[in-house]
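Can't attach files on this board, so I'm pasting raw text. These are the components:
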Amino acid sequence: MKAIKQSGLILFLIGLTIFTGTIFTGSFSLNSNEFDSFIKEKNYKNELIKDELQKAVVTSENINIFEFSSRVRNAYKVSNEHYEALITKYDSEKNWTKKGEQYQYKIYGKPHSLSFELAKKAGAGFAAKNPILMWLLTFGLGIIGALLFIIPDVILLGKPGIKNNGIFLNAATNRGWIGWFAFVFLVSFYILLYFYPDYIVNWVYLVDPISESISGNLASQWFLYGFLYCVVMTVMAVRMYIKYRHNKYQILRTTSVLFFQIVFAFLIPEILVRFEKPWYDFKNAFPLDYDFFFKWNLDELLSSGGFGLFILVWGVVLTIVVVPVMVYFFGKRWYCSWVCGCGGLAETLGDPYRQLSSKTLLSWRAERIIIHSVLVFVLVMTGFALYTFFSGADQVIGIKTQTIQDIYGFLIGSIFAGVIGTGFYPIFGNRVWCRFGCPLAAYLGFVQRFKSRFRITTNGGQCISCGNCSTYCEQGIDVRAYAQKGENIVRSSCVGCGVCSAVCPRGVLKLENGPEKGRINPTEILLGNDIDLMELVNNK
Amino acid sequence: MEHIVIIGNGISGVTAARHIRKNSDKEITIVSAETDYFFSRTALMYVYMGHMKFEHTQPYESWFWKKNRINLKKGTVSKVHSNANKIEFSNGEELSFDKLIIATGSKPNKFGWPGQDLNGVMGMYHKQDLENLEKYAPNNQVCKRAVIVGGGLIGIELAEMLHSRNIPVTFLVRENSFWGNVLPKEESAIINKEILDAHIDLRLGVNLKEIKADKNGNVSSIIIAETNEEIACNVVGLTAGVTPNIDFLKNTDLEIGRGVKVNRFLETNIKNIYAIGDCAEQHEAIGQRRPIEAVWYTGRMMGETVAQTICGNKIEYKPGHWFNSAKFIDIEYQTYGWVWAEPKENEARFYWEHQSGKKCIHINYDKNTSEFIGINTFGIRMRHEFFDKALTEKKSVQYILEHLADANFDPEFYKLHEPEIVAKFNIENNTNIQLKKKSWARIFSA
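---
Top answer:
Structure tokens for the assembled complex are below.
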């Protein structure tokens, strides 16, 4: 069994190495036909960019993606700088007509995204030519290796039950060198994905065949991410199934998040695209889905006929009605650990890191300030977006809506939710985004704290203060602080993963939905100690 | 300002301090020789097993003590001068008090076995024991085999701990079945099997004769009294129960039995000196409880109670209905009320065991009046409040069975065995009890 596990690890590492190495392979160039069709497709109105790009990419030289990217970005830069110079010139000459004419020649967009688009067409090399074979050598080996590493645990972990042996003695799960390595890898991955998509264009080739079979289109880096997300969740869900095979709550919850990720977040949106409908994830509620009320999205929905309108109405109803009503009945867990994609990744890929979340009072304070600031930020931004949409003015009180949206997208959407939110799993635990950043979680938290039937019931006086519950709380809640006082746990941040209850050796904690009355129960004296409470109160 | 000095920073002493602070402005000092800060003794096993770090066993962050104006003093108390109202430390330092709470807990029993103080012989009660274990049994290269002497809760925990690092364990139990003096034979048999299934070498009905040393004074083997068998080992765990940790109180005016004698108000024979927790011995046992109870929650309850008394609200210690819980490797155990190893004359039993052999419930009731007396459960969690109320209201065994769904505390979606349990009772007793559906109204009517 141990041999199988180790060979699985080796296969996985080989797959990972090939995957990483793929970035550096291939050569990138276009012939003149391909180039002309690209220019036609883009409908560029200026000649300069055509010349510059042609010089850059129509070549018989053997250039790698980094060189290719730098040439393309330079071409766009030269062209844009040229027209900016003209704009400045006509501006000083007060030649407004000429100045106005120049804007149509400027090319907007992030340089690396423009470069990605072109690179996607320009690639030649092993990955681009043999996507299926390379898929097997990267994804295939990774999946098989990971499963061979995970499945022997059925035997190795021993009989069903809580098996947390050695977690704090292991370099992978106790911020040891493996943890730091995983941290660097994940952070680099997200930085590449969000900011340097052209550098990972070879990875995107690998999933082209899959993308074509689902949506009919070639893959983008977001398809790659979605596919990878599903693969990682599925493999790590197998791990969850084995680890918690004695616990039906965990099994069902894992199945649920996996289902919503694969079907709702991945397949349905891609299939919608195949039928020329807007890409939409029906479970992704505003304000987590922060661009729902952006002008471009509303415009797209409104121009997509009845179906677009349906999505618009559903998106609003989801946030205003479905989400809070469900939180009232079941707690925010119905979303955060049964449906949400971010939660889904945290509960599968992130499960091995749950014990690393900080439980200090200081981190709780920081959490409340940060998460509610993000909520305020997203609401203000949405106010701007809606004002822009209805009034047509592109700025409010002198601040451009687009600027605010760009800042949010960069700071919160990319850096916080992606780079920090997932990249920091191995260091700060698996719910960094959900705990500190997610504005939807903040909103659900208010409902859960003030108007909900959900609580974690503490079982009378059985708590022995051992601290397993607090240690394994991914949201950094000091569960023990409540349990040892005999109090139920009612906290806005609780995502109801149920692991505190699972790891409790004395059967003290139970997640339940019950009457609101008595849900919050501060106690002076714990159950079992037969002090006459009335007498106690009267004597005070 | 009145100065309250508490000797011992375990659950009893710390609970007393917290409640005194809640209810008064008195000066509070906690004295401990073991650690700087309060930690949960019950969690030591999880540190060795790698489930937690030691800092996770501390329920309060270190700023807590200063913020709540609870002074912490590290030192070993060597004497109590009751007439001078002061304690003396081993280094000669003194500390005066207005009121003194003795909460020094217990220490492991040693029955004079030859070799009981060798290197590599340890209990599993103190932080120092954990450090010793890391030293003598860090892995199965250093510790080829460990022998555990004494078949109680700590013994099986220590066995599980060593097992988690793949160290072979031989487990010597004096009784003919694990914890056979406390658990009925059915439950005890389940645990025997659980121990053997974990590949722990369980030896029932045997005693330790002596522990032998190598030339460096380290443990090298033990001899079993009954068979004279010699078992080579590097570590010996002594877990044959505990006694109050009160040696430093001998030759004082305090009345002492096995523990510090206290009345129902937890007062000793000397005014302004109290004793709580494992080291306190009731003059007369309360209900069916033992005069000395080395249980986590009784320590906590005594702390809660004595704090009221010290803050001028004199309250008797009434520990209410017996309950307890434990985990034997993978089997969770809870008990409410009394289920003795052997039924008493007026008692009848109902026992149900799941086909897996890992879950059971055992109900004890009065065969004449049908009054419910107690329940043991393995692998099924039960609601403390439900049984506490049922015991207070002297409900019948029929009532308990009818309302088993209310009593269940297992996580959501778990398979419930109540219908099977009730059906079995009906067949055995020729009754027609109908299981009621779970009702929030009843659960929260308390």
